[in-house]
Specification:
It contains seven helices and 17 strands. By secondary structure, the protein is of the alpha/beta class.
């Protein structure tokens, strides 16, 4: 398991009974988590003195209860600063387990010895975009949601990257990649974090298990002649890390060499030293780093 254990502004304090107790800066949140199904004592006072709790509804969705949170606040990771806020459906706009992928991408970019262009697909609020830009890469940030792209711009500005070479694209990821292929534009690295389920701007249905393989096959068409890395992340609980590795070994390794690595992502739990699983990641790595 790849564990994001370098945070200071985020902490997974405790988890169990389908929920997790987290510290985001100086704010305590209780949120649902599908993996934390064990039953452990809730001795930490934050379980009763949290700033907000997201409660699921029996009819679907849910709402924030006892919400004493500001409209937004910031958390830092290394030299990066992110705006977080309580959103509908339990989210805050940031997935802290992804920090281990940010670290990996930065190490690869800084060790490449050349200018690197990165394509970040399903890029959400831009954690990976900011990390890659801070490491010196040129980044193309693509997400279908206009609000998420605006939020990502705010995060880049908060991190001092407002003048970094980042292209901000609001578009369907597959359609954008198809156009980039026709334009002959190529990238040295690709990062993607596709949703488990979603609808495109014209009502197209996306199901990860059905559409991930053909999408990665399409995206491989924009890799440069000497690509550096490819990252696929999935929060879908039924998709094993090895599946992501097999996809990359099938679609990228035969043409470009190199090797793949795949693991669960995790966050360390303060009260018991365990690690909460938070999805899966597959990485293809250039032969120059093998």
């Amino acid at each position: 398991m790849w564990i994001s254990n370098r945070w200071t502004d985020y902490e997974l304090i405790d988890c169990g009974r389908g929920e997790k107790l987290e510290r985001w800066g100086d704010k305590l949140l209780v949120r649902p988590d599908p993996q934390a199904i064990w039953n452990t004592p809730r001795r930490h006072p934050g379980w009763k003195k949290h700033d907000a709790r997201y409660a699921r509804s029996s009819t679907g969705g849910g709402q924030w209860e006892a919400n004493r949170l500001p409209e937004r606040w910031t958390v830092r990771y290394g030299g990066l600063t992110f705006n977080v806020k309580p959103m509908n459906f339990k989210h805050t706009g940031l997935f802290p387990e992804q920090a281990v992928n940010w670290d990996f991408a930065q190490q690869m970019i800084q060790g490449a010895g050349r200018e690197i262009s990165v394509l970040n697909l399903f890029a959400y609020t831009g954690g990976a975009t900011a990390a890659c830009a801070a490491a010196g890469a040129k980044v193309c940030h693509v997400d279908a949601a206009k609000g998420m792209v605006s939020w990502a711009k705010e995060n880049a500005k908060a991190s001092g990257l407002e003048n970094a070479p980042i292209r901000w694209i609001t578009d369907d990821c597959a359609k954008f990649v198809e156009r980039e292929i026709r334009r002959g534009r190529r990238y040295d690295a690709i990062i993607m974090d596709p949703p488990s389920y979603g609808r495109g701007p014209s009502g197209e249905i996306w199901k990860l298990e059905e559409h991930l393989y053909p999408f990665v096959e399409l995206a491989a068409g924009v890799l440069s002649e000497q690509p550096l890395f490819v990252i696929i992340n999935s929060y879908t609980t039924g998709l094993a890390p090895s599946v992501l590795g097999y996809i990359l070994d099938t679609l990228v390794t035969p043409e470009h060499g190199g090797h793949t690595e795949c693991q669960e992502l995790g966050l360390p739990v303060t009260v018991n030293g365990l690690a909460l699983p938070c999805g899966s990641t597959g990485r293809w790595i250039s032969p120059s780093f093998s």
